[in-house]
Design brief:
- This protein has 243 residues and is of the alpha+beta class.
- It has one domain: 2-Layer Sandwich (Fructose-1,6-Bisphosphatase, Chain A, domain 1), CATH 3.30.540.
- It has five helices and 14 strands.
- The chain has helices at residues 24-40, 72-76, 157-165, 180-192, 222-240, and strands at residues 13-17, 20-23, 45-48, 62-70, 83-90, 93-101, 106-111, 116-118, 121-122, 135-136, 149-150, 171-179, 196-198, 213-220.
- Strands 3-4-5-6-7-8-9 form a seven-stranded mixed β-sheet.
- The longest helix is centred in the last third of the chain and has 19 residues, at 222-240.
- The radius of gyration is 17 Å and the shape is globular.
- The N and C termini lie far apart (43 Å).
């Protein structure tokens, strides 16, 4: 990706669609990861935000789920709220997840059943039990009307979810569609640290589906997730009904 300096814009970038930036570094990182990971596990299919997927991807037992730079807006503006996200799914379930956040000097990883770690330190979610005062790294927890506490918000959704794993936040919630690549690695890291991760309707998230979109997200400390879900589900159902 070349040299990254905090506070300085990074490389050439453009918009794939209004409000959806991509940079040369996204594409270069994607190409490098595809080369290295495909050599590591040739039978795994490929699903990335920035390159063509493997034909017949959803029928494969294994699949790499990749966001070469999650939080591109922060990356191109010289801010540190971005990470490289790599996950490996087996038959719809993420078995391994890694986030690399060079600008923050952080490496996050988890293996199913093996716990979650940041820079070698094992992670555990907090014990906050109510929506009131729950820490959320968002400008606005849309759909959840509660006196929550706003904390620092990285642009990348993966790092926001990782904050829950590290007891730096209690809740991440949203109604917008996400790509599986956005949340696969961070979802496992959060779960292995004790968080609950579902879509906006409270359903478990399966990966490497033919349609790789996820309808909303709720990632939180178990008690906070339970308290938030009815409110978020109500908003999600109204949104799907066009209300």
């Amino acid at each position: 990706m070349g040299h990254w300096t905090a506070g300085q814009p990074s490389g050439n970038s453009w918009e794939k669609a209004p409000g959806d930036p991509v940079s040369e570094a996204d594409l270069a990182c994607d190409a490098l990861l595809r080369e290295r990971l495909s050599a590591l596990l040739p039978q795994a299919a490929w699903l990335s935000e920035e390159s063509a997927e493997t034909p017949g991807r959803s029928d494969a037992r294994f699949a790499w789920l990749i966001d070469p730079i999650d939080g591109t807006r922060d990356f191109v503006r010289g801010r540190p709220g971005w990470a490289v996200s790599v996950a490996l799914a087996e038959q719809g379930v993420v078995q391994m997840g890694v986030l690399i956040a060079p600008a923050r000097g952080e490496r996050w990883w988890a293996a199913r059943g093996g716990g979650a770690f940041r820079n070698g330190e094992r992670l555990r979610v907090g014990a906050h039990a109510t929506l009131a005062g729950a820490r959320g790294p968002l400008d606005n927890l849309r759909g959840i009307d509660a006196p929550y506490t706003v904390v620092a918000k990285p642009n990348g959704i993966a790092l926001r979810m990782a904050m829950v794993a590290a007891n730096e936040a209690d809740l991440v919630a949203g109604l917008r569609l996400s790509g599986e690549w956005d949340i696969a690695a961070a979802g496992l890291i959060a779960q292995e640290a004790g968080a609950r991760v579902t879509d906006a309707l409270g359903k478990p998230i399966l990966y490497n589906k033919p349609d790789a979109r996820v309808p909303g997200l709720l990632c939180g400390v178990p008690a906070v997730h339970e308290a938030a879900l009815p409110r978020l589900r109500e908003r999600a159902l109204k949104l799907s009904a066009g209300e």
